[in-house]
Every structure is written in structure tokens, then in C-alpha cells.
Write a structure and sequence with these properties.
Rhomboid-like fold, elongated, alpha/beta, six-stranded mixed sheet, 13 helices, 51% helix
């Protein structure tokens, strides 16, 4: 693959320079841009770049025939340079530090497939890929719904009950559909679902919106819009059911659904070892343990809903994805 990249760059006018036994670079003076290439070795030496002081932008492409681990990313010793680890074992690309702008990688893969396309002469031209323009519309819609419901509750409480406050009273929570066991026993089963769309206060809302933005966008990209929504809603409902059976407290919030996303993504990393090696699986477990531990320390947090949502997401994901391993 390295030979293909270099041949393609040379064809489009880039100068190829062998720096040492480990590093090769390609330089384009017109765009003041340089590309570094190497095969993954441990440890990876810092490339000698002293004679290229006029170049403003550097990227390093590390080719990994045997795969890559999160330790490889952390130990890359490429400070100030955007690195791209090409995992030939899994076919995935891991940026370090994390970056959403993959235009240079998209361009490199395009030039080894093209001989004459003039549009490829500048790596600054962003090319469309399957995920480069992805917009998590479902996650954004949920964020909008939660925010709108919060504003309505805020206005109703401020005008009708106890004045404007960043936390809602028990009365307003019940009025808007919080989980209330006695009322559910009387037939108001819809509260198991509506309770997942309201929040107890501003801080509660902000935490959940942040989690939904961080996890929801990624989960929607991985699973697809409708499967993401299915996992989210089923997990939220299952969390409410768990809370109903094990807790008499009035409760509300999207935490069960968000824990469902954690569970589904944990399943995804277990079925895709290259994702686990990238550090994603370990990070998910750490986040889950911290949040469950925090729930044990703070009495007001409904850990039953969290556990119910977590287990639901973990077991619903394989049903929706099917038996085959899913690669996004």
C-alpha cells in the first residue's frame, strides 16, 4: 500500500523524499503540505524533518499490517502532527489525536484508484465518503424534544406553581408524566414511556443532553437511524419498568435510554475486536462503572433504571443487528 500511495502522489506532482530507514515523506510546495509515511514499529521514531521548515501542515500515515492498539496510538511520538493509523487487519482508520476531518485520507485512497481526475490534485478538496457528511438527525431531534418539553415545564411551573426554579417540584413532574407507581397501578402505563422524556431539573437535563450528543451521534452512525431509535426507546422503557419493580420513588429522565446506548455500543465493541483494541471498549466500561458507582453514592439517582437500560441495550443490539458481525 505504501508503494501505491507514493506512486499516486508522484503522479500528481509531489516530491518523494526518503528521510531514513523508517520514514518516507511526500512534499507539495504549492500547498505547503507534507505527508509522512511509515510502517508501524514499536517504538516509532520521530521523523527527521529539519530541512522542511517552510511547510505549514503535516500528516503522518502509519500503515499497520498486523492491526493497531490504543497503546500504539498513545506511544506514536508524533507531537504536533496529525497521525492516521491504517489498520490493514480490520480495514479501519484510527486518527490520533482524534479528528473528524478525514479529507486527506479520503484523497489518498482516491488517488490510488484514479489516473487522470483533475479534481484530485489538491488534498484540500473534501471528498464525500460514507460517513464524512453524516448528520445525526435522530439524536438532534431527541435533543430538541427534551429541550422543548423542559421549557414548557419551566413556564408552567413558574406561572402556576412555585415560581421559576431550575428544579421541578414533585407536583409538576407527576403532571407531565413522571413514573409514579401508584398511578401506574391504576392503569396509567403510559408513564413508563413519558417519564423518559422529562427531566427533574436543569442540571439533570444538561448532563443527559451532553451524554446524548456524545453517545447518540456515534451510536446513530454505527447502527443507523431507525435501529438507534429502537435501541434508545426500548432501553428507556425497560429502564422505567425496572425502576417500577424495584423502586417506589417518583422518577423521570432519559438516563435509562442513554445507558442503553452504552450497552449497545459495548456489545458492538465486543463483536468487533478492532474497536476494542482501539480503546473504545475500555472507555465504555470505565464510563459505565463510574456512573453506576456515582448512582450508588447519590440517593436520588435511580440506578435500577440505569441497570435496566444498560442490560436492555446490550441484549437488544444483537437482535436488531442480526447474528453476523456488524462493521460500520
Amino acid at each position: 500500500m505504501l508503494e501505491q500511495f507514493l506512486a499516486g502522489l508522484k503522479r500528481f506532482g509531489w516530491e518523494i523524499v526518503i528521510l531514513d530507514e523508517e520514514w518516507v515523506c511526500a512534499v507539495d510546495e504549492q500547498t505547503s503540505r507534507g505527508l509522512l509515511f511509515a510502517y508501524l514499529k514499536t517504538p516509532l521514531k520521530k521523523p527527521p524533518m529539519d530541512k522542511f521548515t517552510t511547510l505549514k501542515k503535516w500528516d503522518a500515515i502509519i500503515i499497520c499490517p498486523q492491526g493497531v492498539s490504543s497503546k500504539n496510538l498513545r506511544d506514536s511520538n508524533l507531537y504536533g502532527i496529525q497521525a492516521w493509523f491504517l489498520d490493514l487487519h480490520s480495514g479501519e482508520v484510527f486518527p490520533y489525536p482524534p479528528s473528524k476531518d478525514s479529507s486527506i485520507i479520503d484523497w489518498l485512497f482516491q488517488i490510488i484508484r484514479s489516473d487522470t481526475n483533475d479534481e484530485l490534485k489538491s488534498p484540500n478538496t473534501k471528498l464525500k465518503t460514507s460517513n464524512s457528511n453524516f448528520v445525526p438527525y435522530a439524536a438532534y431531534t431527541l435533543i430538541g424534544i427534551y429541550s422543548l418539553i423542559f421549557i414548557v415545564m419551566f413556564l408552567v411551573q413558574g406561572l402556576t406553581y412555585e415560581g421559576f426554579d431550575i428544579e421541578f417540584s414533585r407536583q409538576i413532574l407527576i403532571a407531565f408524566g413522571a413514573k409514579h407507581n401508584a398511578l401506574i397501578n391504576q392503569g396509567e402505563f403510559w408513564r413508563l414511556l413519558t417519564s423518559t422524556f422529562i427531566h427533574t431539573g436543569l442540571v439533570h437535563l444538561i448532563f443527559n443532553l451532553y451524554a446524548l450528543m456524545a453517545l447518540g451521534a456515534f451510536a446513530e452512525d454505527v447502527f443507523g437511524r431507525w435501529k438507534f431509535l429502537s435501541i434508545y426507546i426500548i432501553s428507556g422503557l425497560t429502564g422505567s419498568i425496572a425502576s417500577y419493580f424495584f423502586s417506589d420513588a417518583v422518577s423521570a429522565g432519559a438516563s435509562g435510554a442513554i445507558f442503553g446506548l452504552l450497552g449497545s455500543l459495548l456489545f458492538f465493541t465486543l463483536r468487533n475486536p478492532q474497536r476494542w483494541r482501539s480503546g473504545l471498549g475500555t472507555n465504555l466500561i470505565i464510563v459505565i462503572l463510574i456512573n453506576l458507582g456515582f448512582g450508588l453514592l447519590v440517593p436520588r439517582i435511580d440506578n435500577y433504571a440505569h441497570l435496566g437500560g444498560l442490560l436492555s441495550g446490550f441484549f437488544v443490539a444483537p437482535i436488531l443487528l442480526g447474528i453476523k458481525k456488524h462493521n460500520s
